[in-house]
């Protein structure tokens, strides 16, 4: 079909307008998506911390409810009790922690230089034994890592103080509503499910929330005990920064497999530089590896607190850690396990319901 000039111009303008509109919509969608991602990134950490606080405090609130205290008043009572404890210990604790942190930042170059010295000596010895490793300069890699990490600490410390102020406001606020209205929120979400899947949605919600709550409480208790054990054991020596080292060991213990190893590095480094390879150093090695990890964590805490609630294959745990770390850093490595566990429960329960309560296809015609 032959197009006239006017038809061609009309077609050209229509296509141009369509392409311009499409590009404008795509640009707007990208801008909106980036804005939503930025907003979600700012609210994600407070929500996760608030959910963790809600999982930990919910049993206490439920216990108070049994004494005929309304849930709102029980929640407020718990929050006021925690606030009073923080108020009584806050001034001393903040000053002590701030002084220790400033001292650690001042000592960081000395510790990194000492660690690099030990690594360089070890590198010379193993390169003599294994000439193939002569190409790998571990000393330079550690030096670059230490410089980047120290620069990150210098820049991140003021930002972390600002973030901590916002967390102190948002986390208690979100946690209060999660504890008080958690059951109502869950019921409202379940009510959105079609009637055919209502019972399955109800059971899934109950099982996932119960297992996640028990897993989170177990991990928090486990990390707290490990941190207190490390702090108490280090306090028996002349090592500096025992409370910070115990806190770091407890937090990193939340990351399976890799976390305990990460938590040992600062303690071993400070012990090597300040104490040398004497009796105190080997006591610290025994404390971290044998007492805290092998005996306390692997033989006592994990079988009692964790194993029943995270029945996952080690390969799946490693995959969850890697994927969580890629998506959201250290926090993603920590929450990857409960998310994977929830997905496993959902898969098993959906499969069970499809087998046990399979319904006829409503789309087929009924016989006359």
Number of domains: 2
Hey, roughly how much beta strand do the residues contain? under 5%
Order of helices and strands: HHHHHHHH
User: Helix- and strand-based class?
Assistant: mainly alpha
Number of strands: 0
Shape: globular
Question: Counting H and I runs of at least 4 residues, what is the number of helices?
Answer: 8
From the alpha carbons, calculate the radius of gyration and give it in angstroms. 28 Å
End-to-end separation: 53 Å
User: Taking all residues together, what is the mean pLDDT?
Assistant: 77
Low-confidence stretches: 359-368
Helix content: over 70%
What topology does this entry show?
Blueprint: H1 5-65, H2 71-129, H3 138-191, H4 198-235, H5 242-252, H6 258-275, H7 279-306, H8 314-356
Helix pairs in contact: 1-2, 1-3, 2-3, 2-6, 3-4, 4-5, 4-7, 4-8, 5-6, 6-7
Descriptive overview:
The protein is an all-alpha fold and 368 residues long. The protein folds into 2 domains: 44-181, no CATH class; 193-357. Helices cover 85% and strands 0% of the residues. Helix 3 packs antiparallel against helix 4 (198-235).
Could you give a quick summary of the protein structure above?
85% of the residues lie in helices and 0% in strands. By secondary structure, the protein is an all-alpha fold.
């Amino acid at each position: 079909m032959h197009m006239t000039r006017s038809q061609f111009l009309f077609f050209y303008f229509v296509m141009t307008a369509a392409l311009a509109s499409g590009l404008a919509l795509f640009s707007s969608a990208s801008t909106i998506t980036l804005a939503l991602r930025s907003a979600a990134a700012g609210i994600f950490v407070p929500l996760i911390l608030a959910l963790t606080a809600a999982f930990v405090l919910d049993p206490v609130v439920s216990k108070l409810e049994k004494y005929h205290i309304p849930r709102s008043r029980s929640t407020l009572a718990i929050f006021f009790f925690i606030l009073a404890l923080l108020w009584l210990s806050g001034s001393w604790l903040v000053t002590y922690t701030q002084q220790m942190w400033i001292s650690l930042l001042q000592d960081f170059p000395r510790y990194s230089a000492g660690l690099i010295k030990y690594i360089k000596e070890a590198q010379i010895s193993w390169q003599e034994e294994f000439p193939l490793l002569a190409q790998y300069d571990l000393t330079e890699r550690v030096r670059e890592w230490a410089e980047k990490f120290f620069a990150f600490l210098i820049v991140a410390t003021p930002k972390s103080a600002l973030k901590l102020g916002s967390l102190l406001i948002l986390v208690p606020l979100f946690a209060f509503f999660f504890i008080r209205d958690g059951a109502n929120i869950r019921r409202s979400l379940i009510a959105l499910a079609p009637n055919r899947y209502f019972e399955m949605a109800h059971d899934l919600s109950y099982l996932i929330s119960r297992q996640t709550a028990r897993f989170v409480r177990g991990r928090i208790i486990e990390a707290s005990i490990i941190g207190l054990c490390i702090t108490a054991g280090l306090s028996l020596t002349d090592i500096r920064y025992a409370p910070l080292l115990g806190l770091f060991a407890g937090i990193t213990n939340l990351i399976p497999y890799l976390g305990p190893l990460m938590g040992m590095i600062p303690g071993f480094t400070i012990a090597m530089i300040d104490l040398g390879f004497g009796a105190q150093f080997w006591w610290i090695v025994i404390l971290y590896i044998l007492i805290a990890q092998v005996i306390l964590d692997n033989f006592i805490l994990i079988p009692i607190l964790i194993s029943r609630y995270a029945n996952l294959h080690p390969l799946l745990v490693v995959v969850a850690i890697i994927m969580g770390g890629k998506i959201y850093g250290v926090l993603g490595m920590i929450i990857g396990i409960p998310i994977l566990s929830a997905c496993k429960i959902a898969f098993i329960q959906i499969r069970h319901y499809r087998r046990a309560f399979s319904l006829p296809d409503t789309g087929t015609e009924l016989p006359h």
